[in-house]
Design goal:
Layout (H helix, E strand, L loop, with lengths): L2 H19 L18 H4 L13 E2 L13 E7 L22 E3 L2 E5 L5 E5 L5 E5 L6 H7 L2 E2 L9 E3 L2 E6 L3 E5 L6 E5 L19 H4 L10 E2 L7 E3 L4 E6 L12 E6 L5 E6 L20 H13 L4 E4 L9 E3 L5 H5 L10 E2 L8 E2 L4 E5 L3 E2 L16 E6 L5 E6 L15 E7 L2 E9 L4 E6 L5 E6 L18 H4 L12 E3 L12 E3 L4 E8 L2 E4 L8 E3 L22 E8 L5 E8 L7 E4 L2 E5 L4 E6 L5 E6 L9 E4 L5 E7 L14 E6 L23 E2 L2 E2 L14 H26 L1
Parallel strand pairs: 1-36, 7-12, 17-24
Antiparallel strand pairs: 2-42, 3-4, 4-5, 5-6, 8-9, 9-10, 10-11, 13-14, 14-15, 15-16, 17-18, 19-22, 20-21, 21-23, 23-24, 25-26, 26-27, 27-28, 29-32, 30-31, 31-34, 32-33, 34-35, 36-37, 37-38, 38-39, 40-41, 41-42, 43-44
């Protein structure tokens, strides 16, 4: 480790800690309550989205609407750079883009390089660190049909006593949470098991091994951003894999289950048609299709069309969709067209919730690639930008709900898909909650996929015509090669390729409310050729319209964002917290009646979950695109954990390693101040007796109340005294 660099980084962070600490005005007097006897769900944050249902909700009550105002910075722990911790430097692989896990008082942070750091939640001291061994990208690419471009991860899970992450090179890695050492691995996720000596073949023998027959359609993405889902009781571990380069270079999308104990393949369900012989069909190739297999795929779609919902903008009430049986069956049979190497469902990003009671597993898929030009792939391009339900034990297809038919915009649905029991339209329902980059959040029946609500905020400022979602019953829409066809001129779009919703959201079961970060960030885009993605410049606004040569846009291209609350029962928007001048790329969590998030403007905020009013805000000194987590240290004291740096401040051009920050309540909280106030109230009493009205009388009532104004005044008085003392001390010392 480079000691000089480490000390320099530590000095900077220590300076930040001291400065930030001065922001804490005073430690109130009193004793915090409820810090012991926490349930496992309260004290821990074991999944990226807190629990296996993906709700981003911790039921703890210590840090709540009343106490949130008192939280203070407790510690800052630096993240070492890739030159200090990790083999080599991979540029934007610096830092961490993953929320922190917290298990029994230990904070676990997986870095973009897949190394792991463990901290004591009480003080931020390092418990252990595990450096991921250097990965040979060239060998990995030679051994598997994978790509190795951006090396970041979105997190890991704690399951069955292990820290589980999807590793480089098509494998799972299980780390011991007490030591960090690798406990076991499951290998060769990209390929099927064969009778080869070690159970797999290198790329040179893929064809003779039968890997690509009929499964191949190009390259997969190795980085594996999200870890698998486990069902230990049934000895199952679930995985999904999408194509390389946003689907542009193929990779036939699939979900699979393997034995948790042995790693053997149990089932694999493909949700794309096959391409062809891997020697002639793949990146840069244009080989023949498997005609027989492609015809079988088309027939399978027709046979299962009653299980497939396709969203339609023309259906304005539940289920907001039509069945695939209603569309042109010839187009349905030929979906994905000739399935060239530049056609695929992109890498999948979100958590897969599992319904152990009913034996179902659910997930949201990424967009159908390539976006903005699908000349070779007519049809809705099932099952891109969709929510999918499979039988967890055998992989049998149950239902799908495609949210953007014939997606030409990059509108994936790959964020935290939730499984919850709640009230919808006044009735108890088990539903899937899922959001997509088209800016719509769907409430789907978990058994059938029927959409009760398609929740869309009026805040989103959509562009006209070319951004309107396509009608699956229109043959012209379902065969349109690109968004503004037949023109090939550049155009404005919003929602743009980063979407109007590209972050994990939160659900509060106590309020039956869902909270999400939505944004407008108009984009100046062009179509590109038929073999690649379109070209775009994200984040354009009113100031750049003339520079881009397109002054007559169909809307004012203003960048802004909002945290929006929806009532899941009614589907109505309840409140909105508006942020002007920047988009939102961070996750949202809810706990103790407070909605917590961090944003690219450098502020961490807490909002009242009922009203959207600001309860807490603090400038963290850096933009952030990683959601916080909240859990307890070993003493049972709740803390909020945030990560800054690395790719979390990518939008500001930084690749610094960053740090983990922990916030908590002070050792003591203020005791309630009771003030007796006499209140005179005139009560009009009218008594009717037969036909005679008794005379009105005045009644004076004396009540004992707590005055909020008095409370605030006392608090301000204390603050002024403390601040005055600090200023006096500084002046004297000077």
């Amino acid at each position: 480790m480079n000691q000089r660099n480490w000390l320099a980084l530590a000095a900077v962070l220590l300076g930040y800690l001291l400065v930030a600490s001065t922001l804490v005005v005073v430690a109130p007097v009193g004793t915090a309550e409820g810090q012991n006897n926490l349930s496992r769900e309260e004290r821990n944050w074991e999944f990226i989205n807190h629990n296996r249902f993906g709700t981003n909700h911790n039921p703890q009550t210590q840090i709540n609407k009343e106490t949130a105002q008192y939280i203070e910075l407790k510690w800052v722990a630096p993240i070492p750079s890739t030159t200090q911790f990790g083999s080599g430097s991979w540029g934007d692989a610096e830092g961490s883009q993953a929320p922190q896990l917290v298990v029994d008082g230990i904070v676990f942070n997986v870095l973009n390089r897949k190394s792991i750091l463990a901290y004591d939640a009480k003080d931020g001291s390092v418990v252990w660190q595990w450096e991921h061994p250097e990965y040979d990208q060239d060998k990995g690419r030679a051994d598997y049909p994978i790509s190795m471009d951006t090396a970041h991860t979105h997190g890991m899970y704690y399951s069955d006593g292990f820290l589980v992450q999807t590793d480089f090179g098509c494998r799972y890695t299980f780390n011991d949470p007490k030591t960090g050492e690798v406990a076991k691995q499951i290998l060769h996720l990209c390929v099927e098991n064969t009778n080869a000596a070690d159970g797999w073949y290198p790329a040179s023998k893929l064809n003779e091994a039968g890997w690509g027959i009929p499964t191949n359609s190009g390259e997969y993405r190795s980085r594996g951003t999200h870890p698998p889902t486990t069902w230990v009781e049934e000895d199952l571990i679930f995985h999904q894999l999408g194509g390389h380069a946003e689907g542009t270079y193929g990779g036939r999308h699939f979900a699979s289950a393997r034995s948790y104990s042995t790693g053997e393949l149990v089932w694999r369900t493909f949700l794309q048609p096959p391409c062809g012989d891997p020697t002639t069909c793949g990146p840069g190739k244009d080989g023949p299709l498997f005609v027989k297999e492609k015809a079988e795929w088309g027939q399978w779609l027709v046979d299962n069309c009653d299980k497939i919902w396709i969203y339609s903008p023309k259906v304005t009430e539940a289920p907001y969709a039509v069945k695939a049986c209603e569309m042109n069956q010839d187009i349905l049979r030929n979906d994905w067209g000739d399935m060239r190497s530049n056609s695929g469902i992109s890498n999948v990003w979100g958590q897969m919730p599992i319904d152990k009671e009913n034996g179902m597993i659910y997930y949201g898929t990424a967009q159908a690639g390539p976006d903005r030009n699908a000349t070779h792939a007519p049809g809705p391009r099932l099952f891109g930008a969709a929510f999918v339900a499979l039988d967890a034990k055998n992989g049998e297809f149950k239902w799908a709900y495609q949210t953007t038919p014939r997606d030409l915009w990059d509108f994936d649905c790959s964020w935290n898909t939730m499984l919850v029991d709640t009230v919808v339209n006044g009735e108890e329902k088990r539903v899937i909650l899922g959001g997509c980059k088209n800016g719509i959040i769907y409430v789907l029946d978990a058994a059938t996929g029927y959409a009760y609500h398609a929740m869309e905020s009026t805040f989103i400022q959509r562009c006209a015509v070319i951004c309107e979602l396509y009608d699956p019953l229109s043959d012209a829409d379902m065969t349109k090669p690109w968004t503004n066809y037949p023109s090939s001129d550049p155009f404005w779009m919003n929602c743009q390729t980063t979407g109007c919703l590209e972050a994990d959201f939160a659900f509060d079961p106590d309020r039956n409310m869902l909270y999400a970060g939505l944004y407008n960030m108009p984009e100046w885009a062009s179509v590109g050729n038929a073999e690649t993605r379109g070209v775009s410049v994200a984040g354009c606004n009113a100031d750049c319209r003339e520079e881009r040569g397109h002054a007559d846009m169909p809307f004012d291209p203003i960048i802004n964002s909002s945290i929006v609350a929806f009532d899941v029962n009614t589907g109505e928007e309840k409140w909105r917290y508006f942020m002007d001048g920047y988009g939102f790329r961070g996750g949202v969590i809810v706990s103790g009646g407070v909605v917590w998030f961090a944003a690219v403007d450098g502020w961490a905020r807490g909002l009242d979950a009922d009203t959207g009013e600001v309860i807490y805000e603090h400038n963290i000194g850096s933009s952030a695109v990683v959601q916080p987590t909240i859990a307890a240290d070993a003493d049972g004291n709740m803390k909020i954990f945030r990560v800054i740096g690395g790719r979390s401040i990518r939008g500001m051009g930084s690749s610094q390693p960053g740090a983990i920050m922990a916030y908590g309540l002070p050792d003591t909280l203020p005791e309630p101040v009771i003030v007796e106030v006499e209140v005179e109230r005139i009560v009009e009493v009218e008594v009717v007796k037969e036909v005679e009205v008794i005379k009105e009388v005045e009644v004076t009532v004396t009540e004992e109340v707590i005055s909020p104004i008095s409370y605030v005044a006392i608090g301000l008085g204390v603050i002024l005294v403390v601040v005055s003392g600090v200023l006096y001390s500084r002046t004297r010392n000077a």
